[in-house]
Design goal:
Elements (H helix, E strand, L loop, with lengths): L5 E6 L5 E3 L4 E3 L1 H9 L3 E6 L7 H16 L4 H10 L4 H18 L3 H63 L6 H4 L5
Parallel strand pairs: 1-4
Antiparallel strand pairs: 1-2, 2-3
Helix pairs in contact: 3-4
Length: 185
Amino acid sequence: MEAEVVRIIKRYPNRKLYDTTESKYITLKEVAALIRAGEMVTIVDNLTQEDLTHDFLLQIIRNQEKKWKLFPLHSLVDLIRSGTASSNDFLNSVRGEVDQRVADLPKVNDIKDMVESYHVKFEEWQKKIDAQIHLVLDAPSTLLSKEVDVLVRRLSQLESKVQDLKARLEKPLPATSDETEEPES
């Protein structure tokens, strides 16, 4: 059985972390990623050589807890109150809280029914939206045909008026009294 390689991370007085394996500065998020990837790390103070791994691992857990609310509030309060209680008590408390939350989750059939009802509503909305889209798309052609009908009627009226005017112009004008008198010589 081969010994697990431990990556040494040094913390400098400026609070920066230095990965001695990669020879570069590293962030706490990157340390967390290394741990998630299965690597073992040891974080030491560069001046005092004090092992700070525990503190930094708690900091990583704290950051994740803030983001995801991993531990139930009740369990955290119990942990603080007990002070010296065993980690098993804490884990049992967390496990009980998690079991309760899982029990409170909707059942699969309930979720399936909800999804199906939303799917039906979605399809109804989709049909209504499609009908509105077709109405909007068909509106220009409907309006255009109405406009054409109006223009055809108007053109017909104008042609009729033009015919009336032509007919009037072609009729001889009645002679007026001034025109019937002969000029004096």
